[in-house]
Specification:
Blueprint lengths: L11 H14 L12 E6 L5 H12 L3 E5 L12 H10 L4 E6 L4 H6 L6 E6 L5 H14 L8 E5 L6 H12 L3 E5 L12 E2 L4 H5 L3 E4 L15 H8 L3 H4 L5 E3 L12 H4 L6 H22 L1
Parallel strand pairs: 1-2, 1-3, 3-4, 5-6, 5-8, 6-7, 8-9
Helix pairs in contact: 1-11, 2-11, 5-6, 5-11
Bound molecules: aspartic acid.
Aspartic acid binds next to helix 6.
């Protein structure tokens, strides 16, 4: 049984096939590939985009969606993950999409159920569909010519599952990554890195990926204030001037901390395109995992 727990679960050629399929799905027309299938979503951690994106994707493919309300589920009454998994499995879904604050939960779940499990984000560990939709957005923008494109990943990289999934996936496709963060947000890395976001870096970049400060994952306050962080790392017009590049962000954006209001309106900011592309990518992922398994 194949699952999508990390981006490593798909080979490069499978990723390109997903992109070809996702491109078709951008027309937003309903399909019936997953008619008669039922998909369960169980999100133990908050989500705005990812949950609705997966549910739209499932419905656009004709599937039924059962959303488990975690606040009312038995896990809040002390049920173990194994028992929750066994009960979910007994309902015979065709796929389960799970998000959890603890790294590793989707992997554990996948070992206890009889259907594909898709990781909707687990702790700091991984967010594979976000990385797939980010790469798809880059791939579409540069019309497939992505090898040797240069990306700056800026922000709380150490605590970001989006960063770790993107680092794995984008490197595999020959994209040159530079990590830009203050020391306490910088992971141990062999990648090029900078503690400053300066004009020289921007001058040499084709893509900037800005990330939110993951305050919910900080054990202690690591930056005096988000305003101080913004002074050094907020993407603003002074910094990017008229440089030809694209700007990505997985959302939710902290305006004027991650990205300024002016830049949010800029043509180069593809944040809403990422959201649209996300539904198409998730359609391609669900179709592949459910029909090819
Ligand atoms: N939405 C992304 C995630 O779930 C990014 C973020 O929350 O900053 O990881």
């Amino acid at each position: 049984m194949r699952h999508l727990i990390t981006t490593k679960d798909f080979s490069n050629s499978e990723v390109i096939e997903l992109f070809q399929e996702a491109k078709e799905f951008l027309d937003e027309k309903p399909r019936d590939f997953l008619k008669e299938k039922s998909i369960t979503t169980i999100f133990f951690e908050n989500s705005t985009r990812t949950l609705s994106s997966f549910e739209s994707a499932a419905r656009r493919l004709g599937a039924r969606v059962l959303r488990l309300d975690v606040s009312r589920s038995s896990s809040s009454k002390g049920e173990t993950l194994y028992d929750t998994a066994a009960n979910l499995d007994a309902m015979h879904p065709h796929a389960i999409i799970v998000r959890h604050a603890n790294s590793g939960v989707p992997r554990i779940l996948s070992s206890c159920v009889h259907c594909p499990v898709v990781n909707g984000g687990d702790g700091k560990h991984a967010h594979p569909t976000q990385a797939l939709l980010d790469l798809f957005t880059i791939y579409e923008h540069f019309q497939g010519d992505i090898e040797n494109k240069r990306i700056l990943i800026v922000g709380d990289i150490k605590n970001s599952r989006v960063a770790s999934s993107n680092i794995e996936l984008l490197s595999r496709f020959g994209i040159k990554i530079t990590l830009v963060a203050p020391p306490h947000f910088m992971p141990n890395t062999s990648l090029p890195k900078s503690y400053l976001l300066n004009e020289e870096l921007i001058e040499n970049a084709d893509i900037i990926m800005s990330l939110r400060t993951q305050v919910e994952r900080h054990e202690k306050i690591v930056y005096a204030s988000l305003k101080d962080y913004a002074n050094d790392f907020c993407i603003n017009p002074k910094l990017i001037k008229d440089k030809k590049l694209i700007l990505l962000h997985p959302g939710p954006v902290n305006r004027n901390i991650d990205i300024s209001d002016e830049v949010m309106k800029d043509q180069r900011a593809l944040i809403l395109k990422q959201v649209k592309n996300g539904v198409a990518i998730r359609m391609a992922v669900l179709k592949k995992l459910i029909l090819e398994n």
